[in-house]
Design a protein that fits this description.
Length: 408
């Protein structure tokens, strides 16, 4: 496991270094164009300062910002005891000393993500739609996948890479939108040197425009490479923790084929954090292009279902190689002689296939997360009181009894 974490960190640092080079080169060229021949260094300084400020904000409170932007709200065990039990099981299986905080997003689209600077301050958020559509084994597979992101130290690196990508895009947009305003002054500065100065101005303009257009694309491709590789590794870790690859495979299949609308809070910056790309696309099961933050879901499912001999990293590596015909993405140094036997489906999961009852729970979970109060009348009717209800009592529409509304 520690070999896998070290390899993960090393590859992340390499990719982030490449993104940093793209960022600094972009800053240098923009500074050169806007401020003249001596402005390259100044552009480097501006780009670095912007990146450091955004990084500091991201490092200190990025997880809370992300949770708030996603509409995730902390919940107690009373809201969904099964979710808490599964997270607790996977915490023990992963050998983590502290259980991650649990959040629920009141959205019918099934998805999940993990966040936090380190395992001790990590959090796992799932949507209400996920809880309503998955049985226990499938939910365990999703939680194990997110737990693997945490123990692999993925979260901090993905957050930092996202900040770097955001900085590159920000600088590019600022330059391209302000290009026409600054180009006149830049031409004057260079034209003072004669015809050669004017030609230099045009050359720098062309180079800066090309850099401003290509830099975000290059950085985004690096970011996608970072994200896609981590999803495979988290699938491998999830299968190992649960000893039941089919649970995660079935969960991915349900999430991909779910007809719910696109996750409302998702955006380009947060998309790589989710277990499945939150942007709905036609043929998502077969999605396989360089502009996707996630590997093709159908491929991930096939790899997991090809793990017929065991659930270790070595078994995942063999399944990956046989499925994709590519060199394994699991570091060979992480292979051990451990035998991780695949278990059978749990009886609790089998008994949970009551779809209509599960789907009704989605609405209730979303109401609890949004502050609704549930009142049960003696006649058997359950009343759902919204958080903005001001009266202290409410009348049951069935038996006309007056019920007291607890203070919220």
């Amino acid at each position: 496991m520690w070999e896998l974490i070290r390899a993960n960190k090393r590859n992340s640092i390499i990719l982030m270094t490449l993104m940093a080079m793209v960022l600094l080169l972009l800053g240098f060229l923009i500074g050169l164009f806007i401020f003249g021949p001596e402005g390259g260094f100044f552009g480097l300084v501006i780009a670095t300062v912007i990146w450091l400020i955004l990084t500091l904000i991201s490092f200190s409170s990025g997880d809370q910002i992300f949770l708030a932007a996603s509409g995730a709200k902390p919940v107690t065990k009373d809201v969904n005891p099964q979710l808490f039990n599964v997270v607790e099981e996977m915490t023990i299986a992963a050998g983590m000393g502290k259980m991650p905080k649990i959040y629920i997003i009141a959205d019918p689209a099934p998805n999940a993500f993990a966040t936090g600077r380190k395992p001790e301050t990590s959090s796992i958020a799932v949507t209400a739609g996920l809880l309503g559509r998955l049985n226990r084994d499938e939910l365990q597979g999703v939680i194990a996948h997110e737990m693997s992101h945490i123990i692999n130290r993925d979260i901090l690196f993905v957050t930092m890479a996202g900040v770097m990508l955001g900085t590159i895009v920000l600088l590019s947009q600022i330059f391209l939108r302000g290009m026409f305003y600054s180009s006149m002054g830049s031409r004057r500065r260079y034209s003072s040197g004669g015809k050669g100065g004017g030609q230099a101005a045009i050359l720098f303009l062309i180079i800066a425009i090309i850099a401003a257009i290509l830099a975000p694309i290059m950085a985004q491709l690096l970011y996608f490479a970072l994200s896609r590789r981590r999803e495979y590794l988290a699938d491998a870790g999830g299968a190992r923790l649960t000893r039941y690859p089919e649970g995660l495979a079935s969960a991915l299949e349900k999430i991909a084929n779910d007809p719910s609308p696109q996750l409302a809070a998702a955006n380009k910056a947060s998309a790589p954090m989710y277990i499945v790309n939150p942007f709905k696309k036609k043929g998502q099961m077969k999605l396989s292009d360089l502009t996707s933050t996630h590997p093709p879901i159908s491929e991930r499912i096939r790899i997991l279902r090809n793990m017929t001999h065991g659930a270790s990293f070595k078994d995942y590596s063999d399944a990956y190689t046989s499925t994709t015909k590519h060199k394994t993405i699991v570091p060979v140094s992480s292979f051990t002689k451990e035998q991780v036997a695949i278990r059978q489906a749990s009886e609790k999961a089998k008994s949970q296939e009551l779809k209509s009852k599960q789907m009704r729970q989605v609405g209730d979970i979303m109401r609890v997360v949004n502050g609704f109060v549930f009142l049960s009348c003696v006649c058997g009717l359950k009343l759902k009181i919204p958080p903005n209800f001001k009266a202290s009592t409410v009348k049951c529409p069935r038996c006309k009894r007056t019920l007291e509304v607890p203070k919220q």
